[in-house]
């Protein structure tokens, strides 16, 4: 019984340690490669934005990752960088787009890099729905595009940028956009003021990813953008990672069309799975039958150890060694039966078998002791030395078996 209990507790401990190690590993792994197929600042792959993230950090800007929906944006953020494509489960909701528009109107700068596929105007988008992505013809693999404006702070020391997108921008007639970059295939980048803030849309991904940030003056253009947005303040530059599958939304309006399981971070998913497995193991072990069924019985209270020993010594001094041994032997059998959960009238062979099932070694020695006690009681009048030897042996087995009531 004790050995099985120890094994059970050891198993639970190993499961708990395994859960902790798995959480540490998956949290570390997720911070480096999650998600691997998205243009995220967590990725050092060509499609990732980690180089731009580190560039801003080394330039002294406060750079963070937005791990929640656009509803969480506040005045502490000066610049938000959004790069398509989005994770399928994280497409922006109408409530998010409206919150994003309010944030820009209050002084935020949104840099939005759109990509394939080509698409028309979006009447549901109050911020950039007046821009369409149109397919361009005869686009080179990497195009060198010069700015259309001069003496503009955003384009200071920018002589050309490198792009590779097969789409170009088209905006509604009369929309208040300024064209920043344009080539023979069409408009590459535009800017418009929205309230106190500004929106910049670029039809490209090479401009700011790890593969293209060092080409032409791409890094200079992105540094100018950060300097104008942040100014002399300590406000943040945020990279939108939530819509790439990073983080978890806590607001109901942000997850109305989202699969909640897909929205959970990998480390949280792992923790939940381990907790489920942990609970199943506990339920299984607590309900597992440990041996054959047997009827319950009510154990009769046995005499306390101090009383039995005192009575045995009294009988020994009176010369009644047989009565002393009989009293001690009877108390030992009663305590042994209670400890192994059997009736005290159980045959000795069954009693010893139950002791062996509890993991006790040298059961044969215990059987020999019980047999010898019975032989001495049948013979009658044991000597003082023989009584002391038997009492000492009974006491040794009492300590080994942790008997109750003896």
Describe this structure in words.
- The protein has helices spanning 2-33, 50-58, 94-105, 218-230, 260-263, 266-287, 305-317, 321-339, 348-357, 363-379, 384-401; strands at residues 62-66, 77-83, 109-113, 131-135, 143-145, 161-163, 167-171, 178-183, 186-194, 197-202, 236-240.
- With 406 residues, it is α/β, with parallel strands linked by helices.
- Helix 1 (2-33) packs antiparallel against helix 6 (266-287), helix 8 (321-339) runs antiparallel to helix 10 (363-379) and helix 8 runs parallel beside helix 11.
- Helices cover 42% and strands 15% of the residues.
- The two termini are 20 Å apart.
- The strands form 3 sheets. It has a 7-stranded mixed sheet with strand order 1-11-2-3-10-9-8, with helices on both faces. Strands 4-7 form a two-stranded antiparallel ribbon.
Continuous helix count: 11
Summarize model confidence as the mean pLDDT: 80
Give the class from helix and strand content and strand pairing.
alpha/beta
Query: What low-confidence regions span 5 or more consecutive residues with pLDDT below 50?
Result: 251-258, 297-305
Q: Bin the strand percentage.
A: 5-15%
Main pleated sheet = 7 strands, mixed
Kindly provide the radius of gyration, computed on alpha-carbon positions and rounded to a whole number of angstroms.
40 Å
Distance between the termini: 20 Å
Q: How would you describe the oligomerization state of the chains in this entry?
A: single chain
């Amino acid at each position: 019984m004790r050995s099985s209990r120890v094994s059970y507790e050891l198993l639970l401990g190993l499961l708990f340690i395994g859960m902790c190690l798995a959480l540490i590993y998956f949290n570390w792994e997720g911070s480096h490669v999650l998600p691997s197929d998205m243009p995220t600042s967590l990725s050092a792959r060509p499609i990732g934005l980690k180089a731009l993230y580190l560039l801003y950090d080394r330039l002294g800007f406060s750079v963070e990752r937005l791990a929640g929906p656009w509803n969480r944006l506040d005045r502490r953020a000066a610049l938000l960088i959004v790069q398509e494509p989005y994770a399928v489960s994280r497409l922006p909701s109408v409530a998010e787009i409206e919150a994003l528009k309010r944030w820009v109107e209050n002084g935020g700068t949104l840099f939005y890099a759109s990509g394939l596929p080509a698409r028309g105007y979006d009447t549901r988008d109050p911020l950039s729905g007046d821009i369409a992505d149109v397919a361009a013809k005869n686009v080179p693999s990497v195009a060198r595009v010069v700015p259309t404006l001069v003496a503009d702070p955003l384009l200071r020391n920018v002589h050309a940028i490198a792009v590779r997108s097969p789409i170009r921008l088209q905006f509604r007639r009369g929309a208040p956009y300024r064209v920043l970059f344009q080539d023979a295939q069409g408009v590459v980048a535009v800017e418009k003021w929205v309230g106190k803030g500004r929106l910049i849309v670029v039809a490209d991904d090479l401009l700011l990813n790890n593969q293209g940030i060092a080409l032409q003056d791409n890094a200079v253009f992105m540094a100018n953008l950060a300097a104008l947005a942040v100014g002399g303040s300590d406000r943040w530059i945020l990279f939108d990672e939530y819509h790439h599958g990073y983080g978890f939304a806590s607001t109901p309006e942000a997850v109305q069309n989202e699969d909640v399981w897909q929205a959970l971070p990998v480390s949280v998913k792992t923790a939940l799975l381990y907790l489920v497995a942990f609970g199943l193991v506990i339920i299984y072990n607590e309900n597992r039958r440990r041996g054959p069924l047997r009827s319950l019985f009510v154990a009769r209270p046995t005499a306390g150890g101090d009383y039995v020993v005192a009575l045995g010594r009294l009988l020994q001094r009176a010369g009644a060694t047989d009565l002393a041994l009989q009293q001690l032997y009877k108390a030992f059998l009663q305590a042994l039966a209670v400890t192994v959960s059997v009736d005290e009238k159980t045959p000795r062979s069954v009693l010893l078998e139950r002791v062996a099932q509890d993991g006790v070694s040298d059961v044969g020695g215990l059987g020999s002791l019980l047999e010898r006690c019975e032989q001495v009681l049948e013979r009658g009048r044991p000597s003082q030395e023989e009584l002391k030897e038997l009492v000492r042996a009974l006491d040794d087995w009492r300590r080994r078996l942790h008997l109750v009531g003896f």
